[in-house]
Amino acid sequence: MQYFRGMSQPAKPTRTSSATAQRHRVRQELAAAAMHLFASQGYEATTVDEIAAAAGVARRTFFRHFRSKEEAIFPDHDDTLVRVGEVLDSAEPHEHPLDTVCRGITEVLRMYAEAPEVSVERYRLTREIPILREREIASVARYERLFTRYLLGHFDESAHHDGDDDPLLAEVAASAVVAAHNHVLRRWLRAGGKGDVEAQLDHAFEVIRTTFGTGIGRRPLPAPILTSHQGEVIVAVARTDASPAEVMRTIEKALKGA
């Protein structure tokens, strides 16, 4: 191979990247074999040995990648969970926490969208086989827990008091993001994996932002600035994005301190 002067040679793949690619390939082949066997001869009738043989690997290789046969048709959730965590960890300080969570779950959607035919077939199997459906639900719950922890991390736990709805709002918002993703994903899968699924998810996010956008990750309310003249005038300061309830609480606090 010739190289133009001034251009560097392409980097050789590292041992780590090669091992990662090999791991990914084996997991995908095992998943494809499992799905084919589940569809052709039934879940109960399929053994781990048969899945391994169909994928051209040994039984012990199967168990290096998956703990059970039902786990085998979900080869990407572990890696996707890591990518989602990286999205959350690398968020810019100025980004709204809810926007960060929406970006995170978009990674999950892309996992399905990368292979529409496989995702549609897997969806069919999970609807027909209860234990696979339970495995999928458990996998999705991991994302929801991750998002809830992230949103709760944007509140000062020590500042919580009776009547403070921030923790509740964080948990409900995390659930809403996951529910929106699941709704869009199911609709896309029922349509055979056709259509711009990311655009559909973006629309769902707008609905969530409209509902929760001013509440998640709020900075603490500024201390009221009070000015009084013979007890007749009180000025209370609140943020412009504060809800009516927050404004009323600020005013009440100002009145009590007057």
- SS elements, strand count: 0
Low-confidence stretches: 1-11, 217-229
Summed over residues and divided by their number, the pLDDT gives a mean of 81
Number of helices: 10
Q: Give the N-to-C terminal Cα separation.
A: 81 Å
Rg over alpha carbons: 25 Å
Helical content band: 55-70%
Identify the overall geometry: elongated
Which structural class do you get from the secondary structure elements? mainly alpha
String of helices and strands: HHHHHHHHHH
- The share of residues in extended strands comes to under 5%
Largest sheet entry = none
Features:
single chain, mainly alpha, elongated, disordered N terminus
3D structure, described in words:
- With 258 residues, this protein is an all-alpha fold.
- The protein contains 10 helices and no strands.
- It is elongated and about 75 Å long.
- The relative contact order is 0.08.
List the helices and strands and how they pair.
Elements (H helix, E strand, L loop, with lengths): L14 H27 L6 H8 L3 H7 L11 H13 L7 H17 L2 H13 L1 H23 L13 H25 L6 H16 L31 H14 L1
Helix pairs in contact: 1-2, 1-6, 4-5, 4-7, 5-7, 5-8, 5-9, 6-7, 7-8, 8-9
